[in-house]
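> example.struct
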């Protein structure tokens, strides 16, 4: 269970953030609870268990978000803090309280999803599904669900996430076999695999994955459409 608190004085913004979290919960099939607070005073008055993540508005009446974060850090050094603000420059001081990131209002659901996925990965909520990649002396471990798509060029396969890419000397066929336990990683063409959890839409001869345009072959397109429809309706 991922326990998340939203501390936001605007009912409209708070509701929008909760809607976006519901989208994340559905798309990644996460066990998540969300509680909203109108200001920092109500949050500190709460007697609920500790939270895993706090989405904290910076500009609030009474105690502002930055002061609230400093108070939180007095008794909890581990909880994730993410600032929500209309002015990104205000979030720069977040390093003082070890903030994970910041989200700019008005909140866009796709941008929010990408940010939250990266944040939850950093908090190790995707740790159980990891792959180990090797390239020469370099060895990295990445969460499978953080992969947007995989492509092959020559003898190298590249795993693309929202923030970086990892290259490995292998074939796409071998990679596809390694990904068999993760049924949401599927083939889009002879050169590409995509993560259905991050697919936004199939448009023409492309599939949009986390904002990236990936070619889809005519042969694979019907199957990909069917898998995507099944994924959204029933999950995979």
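> example.seq
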């Amino acid at each position: 269970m991922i326990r998340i608190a939203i501390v936001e004085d605007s009912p409209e913004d708070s509701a929008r953030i909760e809607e976006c979290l519901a989208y994340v919960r559905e798309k990644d099939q996460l066990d998540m609870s969300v509680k909203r607070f109108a200001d920092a005073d109500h949050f500190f008055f709460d007697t609920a268990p500790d939270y895993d993540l706090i989405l904290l508005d910076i500009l609030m009446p009474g105690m502002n978000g930055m002061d609230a974060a400093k108070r939180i850090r007095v008794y909890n050094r581990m909880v994730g803090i993410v600032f929500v603000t209309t002015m990104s420059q205000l979030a720069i001081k977040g390093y003082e309280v070890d903030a994970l990131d910041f989200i700019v209002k008005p909140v866009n659901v796709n941008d929010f999803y990408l940010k939250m996925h990266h944040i939850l990965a950093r908090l190790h909520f995707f740790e159980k599904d990891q792959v180990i990649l090797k390239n020469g002396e370099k060895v990295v471990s990445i969460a499978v669900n953080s992969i947007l798509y995989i492509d092959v060029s020559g003898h190298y396969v590249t795993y693309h996430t929202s923030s970086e890419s990892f290259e490995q000397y292998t074939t796409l066929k071998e990679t596809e076999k390694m990904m068999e336990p993760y049924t949401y990683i599927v083939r889009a063409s002879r050169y590409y695999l995509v993560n259905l959890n991050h697919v936004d839409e199939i448009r023409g001869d492309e599939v949009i994955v986390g904002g990236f345009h990936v070619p889809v072959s005519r042969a694979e397109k019907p199957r990909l459409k069917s898998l995507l429809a099944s994924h959204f309706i029933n999950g995979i």
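> remarks
The longest strand covers residues 147-153.
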